[in-house]
Each structure stands twice: as C-alpha cells, then as structure tokens.
TrEMBL record:
Transmembrane segments: none annotated. Residues 10-143 form the VOC domain. It comes from Cucumis sativus (Cucumber). Signal peptide: none annotated. It comes from the Eukaryota. The lineage of its organism: Eukaryota, Viridiplantae, Streptophyta, Embryophyta, Tracheophyta. This is VOC domain-containing protein. CDD domains: VOC_like (cd07245).
C-alpha cells in the first residue's frame, strides 16, 4: 500500500454554486438541519456558509453569470478542464496542515495534474484547485493559525 502524500487530510467543506444562494440555504436548513455560520467577507462575491454539526460545512457561492461551468452536475454536456473556474464552482475541499501544503502541490504537478493556486488576501489561507480523473472539482486548503 502506498503512503498517502496528503498526510493528515480531512474533509473541510463542500462548495456549491447557485443562482439563488438564499433559496438553496433555506433548503439545506429545512431538509438537513444545517445552521448558518459566519463567513468571511469576500467583497462582491456573495456567500452563505452552513454547518452540519459534527459533520462538515457547506459553502453556497453566488453563481458567476459568466461561468463556463454548469450550475449543477446533472446539466454538464462536456467537461471543463480549467481549474481556475473551481473557486466559484463545484468542488470538494480537503484541508491539510500548512506544513504539508507545498509538498501536496508538488506531488500534483509531478503527476501532470493541472492546478490553480490561490492565496486569500490576508495571506493565511492557501488553496490549490484541480480535477480528479473523472473531472470532479477538488480543492486542498491550508490555514495558517
């Protein structure tokens, strides 16, 4: 068995882009008991963060009207291979310790996986976006305490 590259990885959040984040938020609150939590100020980008106690967070992101990604996976007609669209699109995020972030990014690049890296303006959160072999959006994030 191979030793995992992303040591101590854990699920951080699942992001979903929507034309109506308030409608989607209400659905998840009513259906599954998600609770709205404080989210960072991303400027013009509107978001709602939800938490399912003892499980995971769901980040609802206002859809970019110029997005090349479909609003939901069921409407996809062709794959979009550019990971720079993923910060606002459909992806699952895993968190890793900040000390392991650079080695994870290096390992992705060694495997020939196209990535898009981003650091939030406060410099404390690093992100890398990419696709799995089936074209599902993924993110690995590290937060400096």
């Amino acid at each position: 068995m191979a030793f995992p590259v992303a040591k101590a990885a854990s699920l951080a959040h699942i992001a979903r882009e929507s034309s109506n984040i308030h409608r989607l938020s209400q659905f998840y609150k009513e259906m599954f008991g998600f609770e709205e939590i404080e989210s960072p100020d991303f400027g013009e980008l509107k978001v709602i963060w939800l938490n399912l106690p003892s499980a995971f967070q769901l980040h609802l992101i206002q859809r970019d009207p110029n997005s090349k990604l479909p609003e939901g996976p069921w409407s996809a007609t062709s794959p979009v291979a550019d990971p720079s669209h993923l910060p606002r699109g459909h992806h699952i995020c895993f968190s890793v310790p900040i000390s392991n972030f650079d080695s994870v990014v290096h390992a992705l690049k060694e495997k020939g996986i196209q990535t898009f890296e981003k650091t939030l303006p406060n410099g404390k959160v690093k992100q890398v976006f990419f696709f799995d072999p089936d074209g599902n959006g993924l993110e690995i994030a590290s937060r400096e305490d």
